[in-house]
Design a protein that fits this description.
Blueprint (H helix, E strand, L loop, with lengths): L1 E11 L7 E6 L20 E4 L9 H5 L11 H5 L5 E4 L1 E4 H9 L2 H6 L3 E6 L6 H10 L4 E6 L5 H10 L2 E5 L5 H8 L4 H13 L3 E7 L7 H10 L6 E8 L27 H9 L5 E3 L1
Parallel strand pairs: 2-6, 6-7, 7-8, 8-9, 9-10, 10-11
Antiparallel strand pairs: 1-2, 1-5, 3-4
Helix pairs in contact: 3-5, 5-6, 6-8, 9-10
Length: about 280
């Protein structure tokens, strides 16, 4: 089974316990307005271009085999003398990727770590994910997911994966659709499956000013987590000011206006969860 990934990042310490290798799957069904990985939207390889500063030498145009339509072949990236072009995403066989990941098995295991599947959305390439997981049974596995996946796919993920990191962005369906392009019915259904599964999990909430950082939304999210016996932690993720930088490189415009963001008192938001008996921290 072949899948598309846009990065394999080693020595990660914020994507699960211990030291981990994170595999970033390409493609996502959501369009979160604050996403810091726009190169993870598309399910196909694509060209990233850093135009600041460009030497204007024209080498990229001269070597391009398809000047009318980019086919993400990578020739311009290979020839650019300033190194301002690269291809985000490559197709790879699950077994081939597993062999690469298992080279560090002893080191990862000694640290109490393992492999984390992130994205994009790993559950959007389920066949590739599950075959890769089968090849990696000798290491601890984490999935970072939005929870937006068909129920059979989600149930199979629960069966195979050791620890789940799931996002919870917004409790209100209409607001969730406005912020991500999809309502949250599927996500909340899968959250109930997660709570009932007996599988350990962490909830991550990206806290974005002017989007979902109000106490009312976070209180509603906290209520959704009541009775979750295997919940290890709620992690509040502050807005990443570096998020807009990547958008121009993939020919997209960052949809928010962070210069207008109000201040957020993260400790007050942390207390929303702690007051309900839910472990919570700000990353």
């Amino acid at each position: 089974m072949r899948g598309c990934v846009f990065e394999v990042r080693e020595f990660c310490v914020h994507d699960g316990p211990g030291i981990r290798t994170a595999v970033f799957f390409k493609g996502c069904p959501l369009r979160c307005r604050w996403c810091q990985n726009p190169e993870g939207f598309s399910f196909e390889p694509e060209l990233l271009v850093n135009n600041r500063p460009c030497q204007g030498c024209g080498v990229c145009r001269k070597c391009c085999p398809s000047p009318g339509r980019c086919i993400a072949c990578g020739r311009c990236a290979a020839y650019c003398p300033a190194g301002k072009r690269k291809i985000a995403g490559q197709f790879i066989e699950a077994e081939e990727l597993a062999v690469r990941l298992l080279r560090d098995r002893e080191f990862l295991t000694r640290s109490g770590g393992g492999v984390t599947f992130s994205g994009g959305e790993p559950l959007a390439q389920p066949e590739f994910l599950f075959e890769l997981s089968d090849h990696l049974r000798s290491v601890h596995q984490v999935v970072e997911t939005s929870g937006f996946a068909p129920e059979p796919v989600y149930r199979e993920m629960l069966r195979k994966i050791d620890l789940i990191y799931q996002d919870l962005k917004c409790a209100d369906p209409a607001r969730h659709r406005e912020l991500t392009g999809q309502d949250n019915w599927t996500i909340l259904r899968n959250l109930e499956l997660l709570k009932a599964s007996g599988k350990p999990f962490v909830i991550r909430i990206p806290v974005i000013p002017a989007c979902n950082a109000d106490e009312a939304n976070l209180a509603a999210c906290a209520e959704l987590l009541r009775g979750a016996k295997q919940l290890q932690q709620v992690e509040l993720l502050p807005y990443n000011p570096a998020a807009p930088a990547k958008y121009s490189s993939v020919g997209r415009e960052f949809p928010l206006h962070p210069e207008k963001f109000p201040d957020v008192h993260y400790r007050n938001l942390e207390a929303v969860f702690r007051s309900r008996g839910l472990p919570c921290t700000v990353l």
